[in-house]
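Newbie here. two chains, one complex. Structure please?
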Amino acid sequence: MSAEERRRLIEAMRPEDAEPVPQLHQVDVPDELRERIEAAMAKYPQVRSAALPALWAVQRHYGWCTPEGMREAAAVMGVTPAYLESLATFYDLFRTSPVARHQVLVCHNISCWLRGADDLIGALCEAAGIDAHEADHGGANSPDGEVFVKGFECMGACDLAPMASIDERYYGPLDTDDARAAVEQLRAGSEVLPGKALAERPAAGGPEPDPDPRVKEVESGDA
Amino acid sequence: MPETRMLYRRVDEPGLASIETYRRRGGYRSLTRTVKEIEPEELLTTLQDSGLRGRGGAGFSMGKKASFLPRGDTDKFLCCNADESEPGAFKDRELMQKNPHQLIEGVAIAAIAAGAGWAFIFIRGEYAEVADILEGAVAEAYGAGFLGADILGSGQRVELVVHRGAGAYICGEETALLDSLEGKRGNPRLKPPFPAIQGLYGGPTLINNVETLSNVPHIVANGADWFKGFGTEQSPGTKVVSVSGCVQRPGNYEIELGIPSRELIYGLAGGPPEGREVKAWFPGGSSAPVLTAAELDLPYSFEALADAGSMLGSGSIIVADDQVSIPALALRTARFYHHESCGKCTPCREGTNWTVKMLERVLSREATPMDLDIIASVQDNIIGHCLCVLGDSMAMPVSSMVKKFRPEFEEYIRRVASDSPGLGSDGAAGLHALTGTSSLAPASGPHA
């Protein structure tokens, strides 16, 4: 659209052209989605605070923030679909285009980059059949629709560097063999990278001797 | 004794995330005393006397901040900032993952001190597994009567909601966090009014970091004087420091502020890999101006790092060793802030964009000597000119790198001047030594 066309379009708009709030009877909201959003609305002093939880619910239900899903959520919340869309496009974790079954976000920020994040993204993409440049600049789906890989900003796990978030769970430190294994495991539907999950990891960089001579434990009346 | 574990005491004890284990260790005694024996004013005095400083970056007195909230019956709120997104920071994640009840107890006590009936933990959406743990712990705390409309039958009310973000660094900025929590895009607000007067839903709001609030139960249990027995006079207590990058044992280390930085980087985190040396380090996350190897003996404290022209920030050290190209590090840093700029203020939106473009020119060997001065002047034009400090957070480290490692930037430029135009990407072997080998983007690898 040229600047002139855009100008004419905007000038021709009237207040009544604004997108209305969809009414519940106009949309067919799945019960589960509706219950989740209503539960979120009930948790806050003001219902608008449930906007992000509502979009999370849409994304969990449909896999991504589909236009229909956002319209349904808008009807439940009593806001315009455009309002929710403005949020979905602002926040990096919401997807506004179709996404593969499994999501792999790879940190490419400083600490992971210093420890081989570029190679990790490269190996993941090679295994999944994805263009690495595309994956690192906005994300890309594998041709078989199984794996979505995206270079992501710091996810707060520099102790695991280089790391990735796979289907919302953290794994690291990962090498290129781990990358190939992870893609295979995701495709096969088996357990992903056993032994590499954050949940299985002790604090402070690894197991310590007990008692650790470097550590003074403070006795406190509280925990 | 390099590590002093207060918040991290027996951090890997199995079951610590459960309310049974936490209570067996004495947990929730402080909250019980708070609702049964302590007047809110006395609680505020204790928090102020303890000298506890905010652990999120600014280092402002926690008790003083809480005392700024007006007294009386208006609806007040407490927001725990768990949107830890500063590159290099990962302490809050581990504190919540390993010991969620310590935070929940701290939130409840701080809410009572501030007279806030509603509390929120704004946790970044990426921390999904930690948010699950936290939600489980909150449900346990409600079940045991430590949260809700009538805490332990005292008539005190604190409702606590775990709110998941959705991926935006800017939401760690306190006013953007409030907008996001109100269901909007995370754009910073003009201050004043400060959140203590007009914050969430227009009401007085206390905003504190996860680590700050995790200290609160210990202070209430043992008193302000006990707490001041740790750390330095200006920075009492312990500090959880995240150390990462080119070190052998990256991780969180809880120390008393004031120990030599070298002790943290070498003694605890093991220093750079065998045969390598520290070249540059960020002492307080990627927003902090970098320091050099010559500055490793600085005490790790708010004051000493500020005097050295940098900052302690959230307490996150990132180490770059002598194999790392500083111009490539500058570009990697700038790209992050460019990506995360919310776009509201022009100096930040445009300044981060053009800084990235100019640094790309340097790394692709297309820059002229003048470009380094332009890069420096762009940073000067960002600092102090926006609603929040996101732009400054790029300008400060990038300026420091250009200033402290200028010859390395000039090296890229000199090659341009001395090479004939015909030498492109397949030019002389010497050029390859200056660039990364990655196929992802020109010169995006860390190594010189």
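Moderator note: DSSP finds nine helices and six strands in chain A. Chain A touches chain B through 64 residues (CB under 8 Å). Thread marked as resolved.
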